[in-house]
Amino acid sequence: MEITVKTLDGIDAGSVTLSDEIFGLEPRADILHRCVTWQLSRRQAGTHRTKGRSEINRTSKKMYKQKGTGNARHGAASAPQFRGGGRAFGPVVRSHAIDLPKKVRALALKHALSSKAKAERIIVLDKVSLDDPKTKALKEHFAKLGLESVLIVDGAQVEQNVALAARNLPYVDVLPIQGINVYDILRRDTLVLTKAAVDALEARFK
């Protein structure tokens, strides 16, 4: 797949060939869904917790004698059916993470990249750099390229001025190539790759 390389000012700067093995697959929603679910489940803190009946600070004495009162048979007032009692089957501290094979994760990343390529929502830039960390300057560059909701993936290191300028823009994410992931690709309208990022992706999946 041949794609035009642009500068940050929107000027053509040659072309690059994207591998069909990475950017030319037919996207599968089920694989993308599995990977996004895996990612988001790992983000959950799992710190929710309630007290059971054994942890409630109430007496464990039997409320009244077993027989002869005409009332139902009850034990301690910390039972779940009473106001102030413990929670039955309440949430406990746990991990929400699920397993997903590495091969499926790698395949999902290819399908996410292919979905952007199929929708023609990939832009390749020769490099992404700014002279000063100014948000206004970065917005002007984005206006020339017609970008608003965008994920920028750079090489091994993100240019510091770009990272500082982009952090005040609500629909702009900037990641190094090590941080590229399915969820962030899908949640933004346009994927912007630098030539260094393209080379790193092809080396990674070679």
Protein model, in words:
The structure is a single chain. The protein has 206 residues and is an alpha/beta fold. The protein folds into two domains: 2-44 and 98-204, Ribosomal Protein L4, Chain: A (3-Layer(aba) Sandwich); 50-90, no CATH class. The chain has seven helices and six strands. It has helices at 20-23, 29-43, 102-118, 135-145, 160-166, 182-187, 195-204, and strands at residues 2-6, 12-17, 122-125, 150-153, 172-175, 190-194. It has a six-stranded mixed beta sheet with strand order 2-1-3-6-4-5. Helix 2 crosses helix 3 (102-118) and helix 4 crosses helix 5 (160-166). It is elongated and about 95 Å long. The mean pLDDT is 93.
Keywords summarizing the entry:
six-stranded mixed sheet; 206 residues; rRNA-binding; 6 strands; Ribosomal Protein L4, Chain: A; ribonucleoprotein; elongated; alpha/beta; rRNA binding; Ribosomal_uL4; RNA-binding
Tally of individual domains: 2
Low-confidence stretches: none
Strand content: 5-15%
The whole-number mean of residue pLDDT values reads 93
SSE order, one letter for each helix or strand:
EEHHHEHEHEHEH
Q: Count the helices. How many?
A: 7
Judged by helices, strands and strand pairing, the structural class is alpha/beta
What gyration radius follows from the Cα positions, in whole Å?
A: 27 Å
Strand order of the biggest β-sheet = 2-1-3-6-4-5
Largest sheet: 6 strands, mixed
In percent, how helical is the residue content?
A: 25-40%
Principal-axis shape equals elongated
CATH architecture of the largest domain: 3-Layer(aba) Sandwich
- Cα end-to-end separation: 17 Å
Number of strands: 6
Family: Belongs to the universal ribosomal protein uL4 family.
Keywords: Ribonucleoprotein, Ribosomal protein, RNA-binding, rRNA-binding
GO cellular component, one term: ribosome
Subunit structure: Part of the 50S ribosomal subunit.
